[in-house]
């Protein structure tokens, strides 16, 4: 059987129990068709890059699936019908990632206080006047420009 990762985005106005019910329904579809879901991750309510069907946020859920291709086709058909799911994507993978996914590790890193990968920069202090940037030429300063 082939390995797949199936991620779907559920509407922002759903309760967490309803999102869990959607994940259970997807698991049931896979298992009824001789496949199995090896892992389910709920990434929580996250902001979208752009608005989708009047939603600015969505609940993200990922399933690791071990099933034949026909099962995935049925899962995608049922997911497309569901009005609570605003987007979904299924990809075939060579192997499933062991341990928590990158999204879950990102959440752990955020809780530790390191929001970005830049590390601890410490106190940067007063930068003062940085001086002239030679590559900018003789452009007039913003306050010197006339408003057109």
From TrEMBL:
One of its GO terms (cellular component) is cytosolic small ribosomal subunit. It holds the Pfam family Ribosomal_S6. Residues 92-148 are annotated as: Disordered. Keywords: Ribonucleoprotein, Ribosomal protein, RNA-binding, rRNA-binding. Gene3D superfamilies: 3.30.70.60. GO terms for molecular function: small ribosomal subunit rRNA binding; structural constituent of ribosome. One of its GO terms (biological process) is translation. Residues 105-148 have a biased composition (Basic and acidic residues). Binds together with bS18 to 16S ribosomal RNA. Belongs to the bacterial ribosomal protein bS6 family. This is Small ribosomal subunit protein bS6. The lineage of its organism: Bacteria, Pseudomonadati, Pseudomonadota, Alphaproteobacteria, Sphingomonadales. The gene is rpsF.
